[in-house]
Amino acid sequence: MKGICLAFALAALGLPLWGQVGSAGEPLFQVDFSNPALSPPHWTLTLRPDGSGHFRSERGSGAGAGSQGIETPDLDREIQLSAEFAARVFQTAQRKKLSRSQCESRLKMAFQGWKKLRFSGPDGEWNCEFNYSQDKEIQSLGDSLMAVAGTIVEGARLELLLRHDRLGLDGEMEYLVEAAGDGRVQQLGAIREILERLADDPGVMERVRKRARILLAGTEIGDRGTGNGEK
Which listed site, 11, 21, 65, 208, has its alpha carbon 20 to 30 Å from 124? Predict the structure, then answer.
């Protein structure tokens, strides 16, 4: 009970909840992202080894609109990614913890957003903060996590459109299929529920239903191959 109360207290203060999930000693991974030019400008994703976790985003005072002019709402929800994806995240974090790799590149690069990674487990912790990393594994890990966040945010936008602007679903789903194909979004299983609702809803355009079925087909083969956006 004390642990639950502490978690709510930290959430109310807007503090990172490093220890709010998982049993004692269970490995835990978290990424904290911020870029005021994007929508949402700040989000955190916490992940357990089995792929379960939590996503939280904040619009901020200057947040813009998404791909179809949709303002991203504040999100605070449980998520489920594939166990295979989670395993790659934890394996990479463990390797980098042991190698003590340098995270931030010393090269002058365009600002992509600050990624603050933290891995904790029974044998210690690893922290990594970067805009761009010359370590290919770290940079790839950051890109994948941003793509997962993109999926979750897109799912929330689809939920809004289904309630308030069904005609707008056509353009948003077109974008989502394109983004899944080139890797801008990954782990579509995280938004399986809204995709299933769209695929089965006779009140939306047939193009929307067809695209939802295409994306769902990708999730059924473990978020690999056509429609998954995972590289």
Answer: 11
Give 176-231 pLDDT, tens digit per residue: 999 999 999 999 999 999 999 999 999 999 999 999 999 999 886 544 433 344 43
| Rounded Cα–Cα distance for residues 81 and 141 (Å) | 15
Per residue in 56-81, pLDDT (tens digit) is 999 866 444 555 566 778 999 999 99
Q: In a 3-state reduction of DSSP, which class is residue 115?
A: strand
Determine the Cα–Cα distance for residues 114 and 33; give it in Å rounded to an integer.
Answer: 6
How many angstroms separate the Cα of 40 from the Cα of each of 74, 75, 126?
8, 10, 26
| Eight-state DSSP code of residue 103 | -
CA distance 33 to 12: 19
